[in-house]
Amino acid sequence: MRVVVRNMRNATEKSSAWKILLDEMPDIVLLQEVRGIPKDIENTFDSVFHISTGGKNHEPIKSGTAILVK
């Protein structure tokens, strides 16, 4: 079983980091600081994506956390 844990550094759908994940094809992927997931990743993996909250009022921030499973 191959597991990847990575901080995506605010990766959007257009980030080159997604190609690396598709090339590696891990079984489980745990990601931080995701801004958006491209369609080819969504079509390859089952995914859960939650926008993070922060600040005094726990307002949504620009990035979130994602879990991808093959």
Describe the structure.
By secondary structure, the chain is of the alpha+beta class. It has one domain (3-69). It is 20% helix and 51% strand. The protein has 2 helices and 4 strands, in the order βαβαββ. Strands 1-2-4-3 form a 4-stranded mixed beta sheet. Helix 1 links the parallel strand 1 and strand 2 (28-34). The chain is elongated.
Structure in a nutshell:
20% of the residues lie in helices and 51% in strands. With 70 residues, the protein is α+β, with helices and mostly antiparallel strands. A hairpin with a 4-residue loop joins strand 3 (46-54) and strand 4.
Q: Secondary structure elements and their pairing?
A:
Layout: E1 3-11, H1 17-24, E2 28-34, H2 39-44, E3 46-54, E4 59-69
Parallel strand pairs: 1-2
Antiparallel strand pairs: 2-4, 3-4
